[in-house]
Amino acid sequence: QPYEVMVAMFGANDLQGMQVGEEVYPVLSDGWKKEYASRVGAAMEQLTAGGRVAYWIELPPMRSPEFDQKVQQLNQLMKAEAD
User: Fold this and answer.
1) CA–CA separation, 31 and 2 (whole Å)
2) Residues ≥6 apart with Cβ < 8 Å to 12
3) pTM above 0.85, yes or no
4) Cα torsion at 27, 32, 35, 37 (round to 10°)?
5) What is the spatial distance between Cα 69 and Cα 78, in angstroms, rounded to a whole number?
6) Exposed, middle or buried: residue 64 (CB in 10 Å: 0-12, 13-18, 19+)?
7) How many CB atoms lie within 10 A of CB 36?
8) What are the 10-residue block averages of pLDDT along the chain, 83 residues in total?
């Protein structure tokens, strides 16, 4: 059904390598970040099509400091794309 407002949280399972065509990007490499930002932008465009409002919620802090540091990088990428 059509919607006017979307609330979403993405990314909790995104910290893995990414293949684009023949190229494989290690997680959080420059190529990975560029492709991830592109995908985030495409998702945001789809969610807000037709003037709809989308609230994209950041990922929460993670228990593991190592994983949390990576998640915070994802949050920064998503925020930069939203800005």
Assistant:
1) 35
2) 59, 71
3) yes
4) 70
5) 15
6) exposed
7) 22
8) 87 94 96 95 92 93 96 95 87
